Amino acid sequence: MAEQATSPLSEAHNVSGPGEAPAAGPARPPATPEGMALAYGSLVLMALLPIFFGALRSVTCAKSKNASDMPETITSREAARFPIVASCTLLGLYLFFKIFSQEYINLLLSMYFFVLGILALSHTISPIMNKFFPANFPSKQYQLLFTQGSGENKEEIVNYEFDSKDLVCLAMSSVVGVWYLLRKHWIANNLFGLAFSLNGVELLHLNNVSTGCILLGGLFIYDVFWVFGTNVMVTVAKSFEAPIKLVFPQDLLEKGLEADNFAMLGLGDVVIPGIFIALLLRFDISLKKNTHTYFYTSFVAYIFGLGLTMFIMHIFKHAQPALLYLVPACIGFPLLVALVKGEVTEMFSYEENSMPKEEPGDSKDARMETDKKEK
Fold this sequence. Notes:
- By secondary structure, this protein is mainly alpha-helical.
- The chain contains 13 helices and 6 strands.
- A two-stranded parallel ribbon has the order 1-4. Strands 2-3 form a two-stranded antiparallel ribbon.
- The protein starts with about 30 loop residues before the first helix and ends with a helix.
- This is Histocompatibility minor 13.
- Keywords: Endoplasmic reticulum, Hydrolase, Membrane, Transmembrane, Transmembrane helix.
C-alpha cells in the first residue's frame, strides 16, 4: 500500500488544495492555529507509534519459528523494482478514477480493505489481548493451509496458524471493520491505518542497509516526481476512500467527532522509513553492545524529517512529498553516527540472516543437533 500513499495535506476530501475551496460545495472556513497544531501533532504521534512498536516486534518476528509470523524479506533487486511497480500502480489507479465511477471503485476497495483491515488489526492487538485472558481460557490450535499442486510439486500459498484467543481478537476487530464499512469514520480509518503500518514495519524486513538505501532512494525520486511533477498522487489520495492514510481533523475543537476538515499522512511515509528504522534496531542488537544508538538516532531523524515536512507544507500551502525530507534524515543521521564511531563497515556488512535466531535457552538443543550431525 505504500505506493498508494501520499504526503501530508490539509484536506483529505475532494478539494483543490490546502486552504482552497472544494471542487463542489461551499468553501470551508480556514483551520484555526490551535486546530492545525492539534492535527499535525496527532499525526506525528500516530506515525511514531507503529514505527516504535513495529520495530520492537520485528526483532521477535526475526526469531520466530511460526510459519504464519515469518517476515517477508526485501532483496536489493526487489527494492530497485519497487518504485517502478509503485508508479504503475499509482498511474493505474489514477486512470481508473478518471474512466470509471469513483463510487463503485471505492465500494470494491472498501470491501477489500475491510477484510485486510480486520486481519491486520487482529494480528496487532493479539499480543496485548493475550495478557488479559484468564489462565484457564480454553485454547485450541487451528491451521489454515492452502496449497497448490500435489506430491513433490506441492507449494504452500497460505499457511496461517491461530488459536481460540486469536478468534476472539478477530471478532473484536470485525466490530471496527463493520463500523468503518458503514460510517467510514476517521477513527475507524486510523485504527486500520495504524494496524497496517505496524504490521508493515514488523513483517517487512530489509536484508541489509544497502537494500534500505536503494529502496528509500528510489521512493525518494518516486515521491518527489508524483507530487511536484504531476497532480496524480494528490488526485488519487483525495479520491481513494480506503485506510491507506492517517487522518486527523483540524476542526475537531469546533465540531467534535463529526469534524471533516482533515490533515493526512500517507501510510507509505510511515512504513517505508519504518522498516529501515527497524533494520537499524536489529543491527544494534547484532552489535551486542546493549545500546540502541542507531535505532534512536534514526527515530529522532524521522521526527525531525516529518516535522520539517509539515513546516514546509504550512509555509508554502502545498502538498509535500514527505520522503523528500524523511529519506535524507533517516539515512544521513545514522550514517553520520557510524562515521563518528567508525562502524560504517559493520553497518553495510550486516545481513538480516545474521540476526540470532535462537534464544539463550535454545542453545542446548542447537548444540545437541550439531553433535548429531558431526557424529
